[in-house]
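Please, structure for the following, as tokens.
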Amino acid sequence: MPEDQVSDLIQRVDGEDGTFLTEDDVLEVEELEIDGMDVESDDDGGAADDEDPEARDGADDLLDNGYDDSKVSFVAHEAAVFAVALHPADPLVAVSGGEDDLAHLWRTDTGAEIVRLTGHTDSVTSVGFSFDGEMVATGGMDGRVRVWRRVKGSEGYLSWEFLTNLEGPDEVNWLDWHPKGNLLLAGGADGTVWLWSLPTGNTLHVLSGHIASVTCGRFTPDGKKIVTCSADGVMILWDPRTGEAAFKLLPADARFRLDGGITCVAINTACTVAICGGAQGGLRAVNLVQGTVLAQMAGHEDGASIEAIAFSEVPIAGAASVTVLVSVGTDGRVCTWEANTFKLRSTGLHEDAVTFLAFAPGTTSFITSSADKTLKVWDYRRGSCEQTLLGHRDVIHCCAVSRDGKLIVSGGDDCAKVFIPGDKDQMMQS
């Protein structure tokens, strides 16, 4: 597609004049003091002593005896569930993708299948709904990206039809929908990043700047830029209108270098800062306006892979909002950070690797999934685990939270499950 047409499309998607970030948007790094959000942490920055062997033994006994906090189990997958997502407008609809080369749309209130999403020949590792929930995409290790859409004129989100199969990378590592429009982004193991326009399926750009597997990436929250990172420790900021790189950070820069490469990335709501997580336990804060490193963050064990990072914007009494930041890793640590100073705030623990992280939007609560077979509900303000959810009998790979924060969906080696956070009668207190 010609550059002027792509630029026009991006501007129409933004619904604005297409003006991107300027130097006036640079985040000012300052201490942010908020009443009621102080938390005590160890002087050495180490993990808090949250481990309780008796509680762990009790949880194992409960699982062995068939205890299950979940409200619904979805058991149509014949192998591990690697990815889950909840519909943005109707949390009664979920999508999951698995090792059985299938994805499913299903109901979270009954566990009934809505439609089986077929066509992959290898594991489905990425799933996601478009911003308005009218389309859903699946990405697999077979390199296929397949898109379905809601049947026009149908009531609710219970009728879907296949739309298109997109030409893309040789193996899909991740997918990300534009936050305001029908643009879909995918990163591949072959070092390429693909950008498509839906529902036409036209390829807008193939972003070629990485030489190693593109392990993570996403649109900035305003949809005006793209950040991608790779297994060789390279981060690139892209202009989606032109497909050109705005800047590139390399491991040759000692301040930026993350040994083992980059595994995950998160971007703050202001679109001024990205946090990159490394395969050996390090994190880097990057100024997206100037292309410089703001901080080297240490809170995880050396050698532990950072599995997920997330920002959240939380309303605070007497202030517009505050940005909070959390990271999780294979060391079992759940680290909360001061999002303005990048200082470690608190550290909690799972009994095994933490695989994913999801915030309940607009709150200080977040959810973590783990290889220890549990989901945990945390409070950022206290830096503590409020509740532990039991039900999975094996490793949990992923989790998602509905926009109203009232529903959690998780996927593991056994199945997909639905939990209701805050249902204290059904949860194990931590």
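The radius of gyration is 21 Å. The helical segments are 3-14, 53-64.
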